[in-house]
Amino acid sequence: MIITTTNSIEGKIIKGYKGVVFGEVISGVDFVKDFAASFTNIFGGRSNSYEGELVTARYNAINEMENRATELGANAVIGVDIDYEVIGQSGSMLMVTASGTAVVIE
Questions:
Q1: Which residues contact 71 (CB under 8 A, 6 or more apart)?
Q2: pLDDT per position in the chain (106 positions), as tens?
Q3: CA atoms within 13 A on the CB side of 88
Q4: Integer Cα distance of 31 and 64 in angstroms
Q5: Which among 9, 12, 51, 83 would be 20 to 30 A from 39, CA to CA?
Q6: Angstrom distance (rounded) from CA 96 to CA 86
Q7: pTM to 2 decimals?
Q8: Ramachandran assignment for 88, one of left (phi > 0), alpha (psi -120 to 50 degrees), beta (any other)
Q9: How many CA atoms lie within 13 A of 90 on its CB side?
């Protein structure tokens, strides 16, 4: 399946629109990752534990969006947008939402 942030796909004709599809993931950051990230906060640098969690959540949100598009009979998703939000008590949860328009292309 083609998934793109653009509103069209070069060389392809959109034959039909199936609707807006979403993929949502809410992921908790555990104590160990939070503890390891606190050292990065003190000493500087990149937080591999948080980055890994972010990559996994984004991948899962896109995959869920793709599955929902497939259920609608689409073979592509255009206009994809990915949003990140910190939620929960003390900001301990990460929400990643992927959305786009499911389409049928030729």
A1: none
A2: 999 999 999 999 999 999 999 999 998 765 445 544 454 444 555 556 677 888 899 999 999 999 999 999 999 999 999 999 988 777 778 899 999 999 999 9
A3: 12
A4: 27
A5: 83
A6: 9
A7: 0.81
A8: left
A9: 6
